[in-house]
Every structure is written in structure tokens, then in C-alpha cells.
Write a structure and sequence with these properties.
It is built from 14 helices and 17 strands. By secondary structure, it is of the alpha/beta class. Bound molecules: L-homoserine.
């Protein structure tokens, strides 16, 4: 029997307990031992839980219990999850987590502590919910040099965009529905402002390129400025709007990383990923494109990934799973101003197309009286911004700008 603890009994934590109880026999047949949930940490009472007698409000009950070898941290947020995780690792307990905020903020440090203590720190559930992505990248694709990773990494925003596009639903109504379905973060601004997707692409970038990428080094935009008008123009250009996290290796060895809404061509594999589903494309130099698809949010999909890490830890109590990256200082990341994209522009004003052609050169445009949308050739953001200023100087009002994802 391997004793474990679960810290947090929210959406994911209750899913972890549920799976461990309902899939007990299946997991026993895999490990050859029972996984026994000895303690569940939460400040709330859960009298209806079948293991209500094992709940505790005191972290010391877990850290001081020598029988507990594996701890699932599914509390979310940085504090006290960071302190608890550190103490568990230092006490020789392996830790698994779905906490992308913590991994993105302190992953390098926690991985180093796990290495020193000869225990495991695993976080399959931190990116892509139920989709296997950390382990495949770390093991199955390890023989590749990764050139690019791009994905739809946030279920809430993908759900909102899908409802806006397909049902004409208002932004607020779609967000409320996503919250009711348990997809959204406690503070949904982390979803809609792009921070959650940013944390996830930071984790994948750290894994792919071996150096920690901190979220505050990454240009991040959310979906709050996307309008139904943009959605319709995107369709006319043969695209859909998706919130994309993308990191690309450049010829000079640096990386170009961003989280932003993008127009994705309909033929792209990422264009047809809807609702709370996530999709992640990994471009390896040997494999070419490999695409991972599945439910990126929700109780049981995410809990399934946490449970897989628990099983992995239980099967490797005395050995380390190799998962590591070094600390980073952001010096390997190019400035967003140098990042090159084709750009979509929606504008308003007399003679907008002629003026845009004069300033931007070759463009693809759709004109509707004074209203116009156009797509430029590829250029660095600094050049694009200069040209936009010139267009504004010609009396054209720029209503929105969105990157075109070459995906
Ligand atoms: N709020 C997150 C999402 C949950 O919507 O994708 C899963 O990380």
C-alpha cells in the first residue's frame, strides 16, 4: 500500500479523490499495490465525502506523517502551495500538481529541490488538462530538437470564442457558463486576459528549450477586445480567431514567445478545436508536426492527469523520473517589438485601402464603404506600429489589430 495525501478539495482535488476511489482496482492492477488516500487537506468540511474522516485542516498532519510518500497539490495559487510544496519535497515526499501558476513561477527551483532530495515533482495536469503533453514532450519526443510549440491552451477562452462564433452568445454569458461548468479559474481574469495560457506556454517553452521562461518576460494579450465584427471579417479571410500561446526557436538560438489572439487559417489543425478543448502542436525536427487534442479543462480530465502522475510517483518511489530544466533570466527571449507576424487590421475612413496600400505595400483587403479590414505582409511589430501611426496620420481610424498565426 502506498499512502498519499491530496491538498485541496476543489474542482480538481475532488476529482482526484473520486478517480482514486472509483478506479481503485484498475490502479491496483497497474501498480500491484493499493493507493491509499490517507489525508485530504482543505479548510472546508465535506461531511458527504466517503472519506470524510480523513480530512484535515492542518498541513502539519501531512508533513509529519512519514507514511505519506506522495502528495497531490491541487490547491491552486502561489501561496501557500509554494511553501507546502517545498516542505513536502524537502521532507522526501514526491509532489504532483495541476498548479500551472506555481510551476510557471517557481518550476526551476522546485525541480532543483526535487533533484537534490531524490524525489519527483511532476505536473502533467498543469498544461492541457487531460491531454498528455508534458510526458510526451519529455520522453517520446526527446530525440527531437523542438522548433516550435503552439497551442490553444485555455479552455475557458476557447469555450467563450466558440460560443460567440457559433451561437452569437454575448461574452459575459459565455464566461458565466464556462464558470458554471468548472472550466474557469477562481479569478477568471487570468483566463480572459491570457495569463493562464501564458503560464502554460511558459511551462512548455521551459521544457522544450531547457531554461525557465518566466511569464513576466512574455508579451500577453487576452480576448476581451475581440468583437463579433472581427470574428466575421476573420471568416471572410478564411480564418477563425483563437487565443494562441506560441514559442518558436529562431536561427540565432533565441526564442520568440507570445500569448495573443490570432487569426488562424481554417486549414490549420488548430482552427477546428472548439469549446473547452485544447490543441497543442509540437514541431520537432525529426517528427515534423505532432498535434495533441483533448479536454483542456474540467474536473475529471484534469484529475485524470494528476492521478497518472500519482501512479508514476508510486511506481518510482526510490528513483527519479527525469524531468528538469535550468533557471532562466530571459536573455534567450527576443523583444516583442522584433517579433514578426502578418497583421490583420480593421479600420474606418475614406480611401482607407488606397492609403493602407501606400503605407503597408501589398495587402489583402475587404472593403465595405468606409469600413475596411486588411491583412499585411509579415513584418516586425515595431515596423507595423510605425506604419499604423502613419495610417492614423492620414485620417484613418484603426479599430483593431490582430496577429495572423502561421500555424
Ligand atoms: N481555467 C483553465 C482553462 C483551467 O480554462 O483552461 C485549466 O487549466
Amino acid at each position: 500500500m502506498v499512502s498519499i495525501a491530496v491538498m485541496g478539495h476543489g474542482v480538481v482535488g475532488s476529482g482526484v479523490v473520486q478517480i482514486l476511489l472509483t478506479h481503485k482496482q484498475k490502479l491496483f492492477s497497474v501498480i500491484g499495490e493499493e493507493i491509499y488516500v490517507k489525508k485530504v487537506l482543505d479548510l472546508r468540511e465535506f461531511p458527504d465525502s466517503p472519506i470524510s474522516d480523513r480530512f484535515t485542516k492542518d498541513f502539519e498532519d501531512i508533513i509529519n506523517d512519514l507514511e505519506i510518500r506522495v502528495v497531490a497539490e491541487v490547491m491552486g495559487g502561489i501561496h501557500p502551495a509554494y511553501e507546502y510544496t517545498k516542505r513536502c519535497l524537502k521532507a522526501g515526499k514526491s509532489v504532483v500538481t495541476s498548479n500551472k501558476e506555481l510551476v510557471a513561477a517557481h518550476g526551476a527551483e522546485l525541480l532543483e529541490i526535487a533533484r537534490q532530495e531524490n524525489v519527483n515533482y511532476l505536473f502533467e495536469a498543469s498544461v492541457g488538462g487531460g491531454i498528455p503533453i508534458i510526458r510526451p514532450m519529455n520522453q517520446c519526443l526527446v530525440a527531437n530538437n523542438v522548433d516550435e510549440v503552439a497551442g490553444i491552451l485555455n479552455g475557458t477562452t476557447n469555450f467563450i470564442l466558440t460560443k460567440m462564433i457559433e451561437d452569437g452568445m454575448q461574452f459575459e454569458d459565455a464566461l458565466r457558463l464556462a464558470q458554471e461548468l468548472g472550466f474557469a479559474e477562481r479569478d477568471p481574469s487570468a483566463d480572459i486576459e491570457g495569463h493562464d495560457a501564458c503560464r502554460k506556454i511558459c511551462i512548455l517553452a521551459s521544457l522544450a528549450f531547457g531554461k525557465h521562461v518566466y511569464p513576466d518576460c512574455v508579451h500577453t494579450e487576452g480576448i476581451t477586445k475581440i468583437t463579433l465584427e472581427d470574428v466575421k471579417y476573420a471568416e471572410k479571410f478564411g480564418c477563425v480567431i483563437k487565443l494562441i500561446g506560441r514559442v518558436k526557436k529562431l536561427d540565432n538560438g533565441k526564442i520568440d514567445i507570445i500569448t495573443a489572439p490570432m487569426l488562424v487559417p481554417e486549414k490549420s489543425q488548430l482552427a477546428n478545436i472548439d469549446n473547452e478543448f485544447n490543441g497543442i502542436m509540437v514541431r520537432g525536427d525529426c517528427t515534423g508536426d505532432v498535434v495533441f487534442y483533448g479536454k483542456g479543462a474540467g474536473k475529471l480530465p484534469t484529475a485524470s492527469a494528476v492521478c497518472a502522475d500519482i501512479v508514476d510517483c508510486c511506481m518510482h518511489l526510490k528513483t527519479r523520473r527525469f524531468l528538469f530544466w535550468a533557471d532562466g533570466d530571459g536573455s534567450n527571449i527576443i523583444s516583442v517589438k522584433d517579433s514578426v507576424f502578418k497583421m490583420y487590421v480593421r479600420a474606418n475612413g475614406s480611401g482607407a485601402v488606397a492609403k493602407a496600400e501606400k503605407i503597408f505595400g501589398k495587402i489583402k483587403s475587404i472593403e465595405d464603404g468606409k469600413r475596411v479590414a486588411f491583412i499585411t505582409e509579415s513584418m516586425p511589430l515595431c515596423e507595423f506600429e510605425e506604419k499604423c501611426e502613419k495610417l492614423t496620420g492620414e485620417g484613418i481610424e484603426i479599430l483593431s489589430t490582430i496577429r495572423l498565426g502561421d500555424l
